[in-house]
Amino acid sequence: MASNTQEWWPDQLDLELLDQNSADIGPYGEEFDYAEAFEELDLEAVKSDLEDVMTDSKEWWPADYGHYGPLFIRMAWHSAGTYRSLDGRGGAAGGHQRLPPISSWPDNVNLDKARRLLEPVKTKYGEKLSWADLIVLAGNVALESMGFETFGFAGGREDDFRGDDAVDWGPESEFETTSEERFDEEGDLKAPLGNTVMGLIYVNPEGPNGEPDLEGSAKNIRQSFSRMAMNDKETVALIAGGHTFGKVHGADDGDNLGPEPEDAPIDLQGLGWDNEFGEGMGPDAITSGIEGPWNATPTVWDMSYVNNLLTYDWEPEKGPGGAWQWTTENDELDDAAPGVADPDDKEDVMMLTTDVALKHDDDFRAVLEEFRDDPEEFQETFAKAWYKLIHRDMGPPERFLGTEVPEETMIWQDPLPEADYETVGDAEVAELTDALLESGLSTGELVKTAWAAASTYRDSDKRGGANGARIRLEPQRSWEANEPEALADVLSTLEKIQTEFNESRDDDVRVSLADLIVLGGTAAVERAAADAGYDVEVPFEPGRVDATAEQTDVDSFEALEPEADGFRNYLGDADEPVEDLMVDKADLLNLTASEMTVLAGGLRALGATYGDSDRGVFTDEPDALTNDFFANLLDMEYEWDAVTEDEDVYEIRDRDTGEVAWEATRADLIFGSNARLRTIADVYASDEEKFVEDFAATWSEIMKLDRFDLE
Predict the structure, then answer these.
(1) Which of the two ends of the chain, N or C, has the fewest CB atoms closer than 10 A to its terminal CB?
(2) Which DSSP helix (H) or strand (E) runs through 650?
(3) What letters, b where the CB count within 10 A reaches 16 and e where it falls short, cover 447-478?
(4) Phi-psi category of 13—alpha, beta or left, where left has phi over 0 and alpha has psi -120 to 50?
């Protein structure tokens, strides 16, 4: 097979990430509305069908204990558990467990069989039920079928039809390896990674580097689960709750397993890990390489996992699969589990290193003891933690679909208040626009503030955005990229305009600061276009509200802080090149390469640069929305010289006189250096009207990325 350009030139800026945002490659077409289709679904009928599947054991993949529930819980968990809070990527949305690389991760051995068991249900309901929703729903129904009361379920996860190439799963080139590059000097996972081992969802169940190291395992657990936005209590609840059910499989070592699905022979039709040990299934199954159940009631919700872990002393041993696992000292636990095929057969219970680590960590143990003493607290905590696990990447509650959506909104859903006033109309928008443009705030100040608010949006988990005006709250108001002192002055002026307008009304019409921030940027763009000779109307949709500090989880919002922002020419102190981070941000904003290009060029023309720097502002007409950035960048009358040792800052000189015309960064020069970006820049350099129109359209889209109420 021929190599692609990225393989030939590995240091080339990877723009294929943005191609994922340019077209719908799925079979349903762009007009398909999954939310509308899902609302036609009879959810109770689907759940009834899933309940039937649970105990309909198939000869080609028999159910442990006659019940597929534990297998489906693992499937749902491993689908949702790839989520990491630092960039919002991963998670159950998209149904990526069906696609490489996740479909072939070692941690997902035999989950291909779980999905095949669900194939008849998917076929029956077709486009009304995505695989992404079905996988998660099956886990919920599995819990309920074994006696657990779940907190709720929401649909709305659309299927993707290709893997997400934007996700950095780690530096390793082989599965189940851990390199030093994955961790920093303090031994902490480097951002944005969430899993400590390549190809595993969280941590190595045997312990760090496959050794039964309890202290190291506890550290890995805490860090990995915190990257999934879970605290200690939620972490213990998830592990204890999940391990209340089912067993792990290690009848023999993994040498008997064939290749993963992506490397399996064509006749296996996408199934992987062909098992040559014994009959290859049931008692002979090999999955993790660890063997045994956690308790004697593996298909019932009860307290036995917690009680077993705390009551008995556990010691490490090598199991039949050659992996480290833990058994009770002197075989003091007599309560054996039933066999997976014949209940009359008995199997010893076991624990993983990651289980025993919970008992030996003081904080984790305190939670375990709380759960042991208060089973209802355990049940409630697991229910809410599980709900958070499977919904964390879905965004705000207004995106949630179905009859089982809870009424309660959790803090991790970034709640917004209900507006108790009427929204501004066209006349009020015109009045406020005049006030904004006469306020003394510059075009750059208005645009930067709107950009700083709206560009926090992440399409990966639908967090961030201008709605809520959280830019005026901690932590966003103190982010270095937002220039806190300058931002405070702008916000003070905007708040004054807001107060004067609202207090002048004798009706119920009010304007939120969130709307005013966006309107300020919109008005500035229209004024700048007019100064360049173009009459452009940038759409503005009012209806945003202002969140309170109590509705804002400061710690979780820290993850949205930009390390650098090439769109504002903010270099920060990131280790990665600013242009790579700009592409990453563009992907999170769901931009194409063309939209990223026009947006960067327009922001430069508007003077929306960090610290009001002249870097990248290649124009003699600042504040006018001209295409000078592209025209001058591509003009061969100039040459470019690095002026810093790390080649982050450059001077653009007149070739004849040697005089410095402008200063630039890598985030500017990349649009002339990269072949694909240069072809786009060339279009905008030669057609200013198209540039202005495309910038206005892209700006408008950015400002409403989080307006799910408009969908």
Answers:
(1) N
(2) strand 649-654
(3) bbbbbbbbbbbbbbbbbbbbbbbbbbbebbee
(4) beta
What is the rounded distance in angstroms from the CA atom of residue 697 to the CA atom of residue 538? 7
pLDDT in tens, 281-329: 998 899 999 999 999 999 999 999 999 999 999 999 999 999 999 999 8
User: What DSSP assignment string belongs to 277-321?
Assistant: STTSSGGG-BSSS--EESSS-TTS-SSHHHHHHHHS-EEEEE-TT
Residue 431 to residue 415: CA distance in whole angstroms: 30
- Residue 459 Cα distances to 643, 670, 704, angstroms: 36, 24, 12
In the block, tokens 């860090």 appear at: 223
203-209's contacts with Cβ under 8 Å and 24+ in sequence apart are 203/354, 204/178, 204/353, 205/248, 205/288, 205/290, 205/352, 205/353, 205/354, 206/290, 206/323, 206/324, 206/325, 206/352, 206/353, 207/324, 207/353, 207/354, 207/357, 208/178, 209/178
User: Containing H/E element for 503?
Assistant: helix 484-504
Bridge partners of 250, per DSSP, are: 286
Instruction: Count the Cβ atoms, other than its own, within 10 Å of residue 622.
Output: 18
What is the rounded CA–CA span in Å between residue 300 and residue 672? Answer: 63
Half-sphere exposure of 502 (CA within 13 A, CB side): 15
Q: Give the DSSP letter string of 511-528.
A: --HHHHHHHHHHHHHHHH
Flag whether pLDDT at 203 surpasses 90. Answer: yes
**pTM to 2 decimals?**
0.95
Tokens of 291: 């063997």
CA 255 to the chain's CA centroid: 34
Query: Is residue 423 within 8 Å of 667, Cβ to Cβ?
Result: no
Predicted confidence band of residue 2 (pLDDT cuts 50, 70, 90):
low
Cβ count near 246 (within 10 Å): 25
Q: Which of 166, 230, 245, 159 is nearest to 194 (CA)?
A: 230
Rounded distance between C-alpha atoms, residue 10 and residue 637, angstroms: 31
Residue 315 in tokens:
């010691």
Identify the DSSP state of 567: T
d(CA 446, CA 466): 13
Closest CA to 622 of 493, 497, 505, 528: 528
Give 611-627 pLDDT, tens digit per residue. Answer: 999 999 999 998 899 99
Rounded distance between C-alpha atoms, residue 498 and residue 513, angstroms: 7
Contacting residues for 559 by C-beta, under 8 A, at least 6 apart: 85, 86, 87, 88
Indicate which residues carry an active-site annotation: 78
Q: Judge whether 691 and 601 are in contact, CB under 8 Å.
A: yes
633 in Cβ contact with 663 (< 8 Å): no
pLDDT exceeds cutoff 60 at 1: no
Contacts of 673 (CB under 8 A, 6+ apart): none
Sorted by sequence, the CB contacts under 8 Å of residue 507 that are 6+ apart come out as 422
Q: How far apart are CA 523 and CA 429, in angstroms?
A: 10
CB 210 within 8 A of CB 324: yes
Helix axes 43-54, 131-145, angle to 10 degrees: 60
Residue 205 structure tokens: 């169940």
pLDDT band per the 50, 70, 90 thresholds, residue 644: confident
Given a contact cutoff of 8 angstroms between Cβ atoms, the answer to whether 97 and 108 are in contact is: yes
* Percentage helix, strand, coil for the chain under 3-state DSSP, each rounded to 5: 45, 10, 45
Cβ-contact 271, 113 below 8 angstroms: yes
Cα–Cα distance for residue pair 529/539, rounded to 1 Å: 14
CA–CA distance, 692 with 36 (Å, rounded to integer)? 35
Cα(116)–Cα(95) distance, rounded to whole angstroms?
14
